[in-house]
Specification:
511 residues, alpha/beta, five-stranded parallel beta sheet, 43% helix, 8% strand, globular
Length: 511
Amino acid sequence: MKQSHRNRGGALAGAFVLILPVFFPNLFTPLSHASPSLLSEWNAPKPLHLGLLNSALQQQDSQEKRSDPWSPLPDEGWKPCLDSSYAPSLPTNSQGYLQVFLDGGLNQQRMGICDAVAVAKILNATLVIPYFEMNLVWQDSSSFGDIFDVDHFIDVLKDDISIVKELPEDFSWSTRSYYATRIRATRIKNAPVHASANWYHENVLPILESYGIAAIAPFSHRLAFDNLPMDIQRLRCKVNFKALSFVPHIRALGDALISRLRYPPDQREALGTSYLKEVTDAADRQGPGKFVVLHLRFDKDMAAHSACDFGGGKAEELALAKYRQVMWQGRVLNSKFTNEELRNQGRCPLTPEEIGLLLAALGFDSNTRLYLASHKVYGGEARLSALRKLFPLMENKKSLASAEERAQISGKASLLAAVDYYVGMHSDIFVSASPGNMHNAMVGHRTFENLKTIRPNMGLLGQLFLNKSMSWSEFQQALVEGHQSRQGQIRIRNPEQSIYTYPAPDCMCHG
């Protein structure tokens, strides 16, 4: 009988825990700008590298002289070079209208736009403003015009290609829904990845000539990076670095965030409406402060797909394994390797704790203003706690701007990413925790502008983090030496590498 009472008591307690969020939601949401939720506090993973973390915190409290991580990049003699070898001129007669349907996230779409302009030039076609597909992951229906300034885009390229915002009435039938119902003669569905210019001449030009219109879907990574005329290469970079400008409200919010990062309030108190609405008067300040933008690419998909161990114990291991099976049905190559093997190969995304240790080793301290540009972080605030201990002046869109100021971008992944991209391009230093489309786009754009960009040495970091007996001084020396040539210096593009990540030498001139 007592056992039965105990069982009923346990069941009631379990039910109470399940319904607790309904009646006390604040217990399960962040308590403040810097505090994790109570539930995540109970389940917070322990630091994977506690010895290094404690040493880094002690160093920050000491007066020990450190290297200056803010030193600008030296001028290597490379300059932006976008001018064509001949005076740009529009062809007299267009071959027809070219439509492209772009999928992926913001930065993948960005590269697709650049390729679409290049293909339109190759085919002597009129480009219709690209159509953005609804992304299944991001669930964002934002259009080209919701993100990019259409008039600016057309004006910058007016001497290179003809662009229209919409199809004329005669072709109004050519819509995404039209191509979704059956095979259509005007749709090109089999464009190979990294297709050559000749492929477009042979497969798309005849359709343009026959029907006056051609629609390419899907259109992602559908133009080669090699064996193209220099004028086409430079046109791609002109689109990426000059023609693609965000809409005014994104730039305005980005400028507000940048101002608040460069000119923080003198008294750093709990954030409230008075701070969020504060208008900074730069003239009354001693000069702009510096800040780092960190793209912390550590979401649940990344964690699960990597098949690495992130210190959450058996519960986290099982949860990620289940998610991996549901999402990819076992088709994850990394799951065949041990955690040690994956880390030795540099195939584990850096956790917030690990990227924090890297930044601390490179000389950034607790006075560093850090802007977090990221989608949802796996593990929430609990996972961020070690990073926040190292860098208490860590900010993001929510901490710097009010809900009213963020209203136009709230819940729209592409617009949120656009704001982060804009702030990232105006930061003193940009660092991405793991490679990806955002990383590749920012590396290329900041290389073009000769801005400092730290590229983590994933292989070195993986090996160092496996060494549990390494002292802080050894760790720091290894990281400083291993990142001397990974801070934004010009890297010449190799064959098959992306022109958007490595703009030299195609879109930059030396000397």
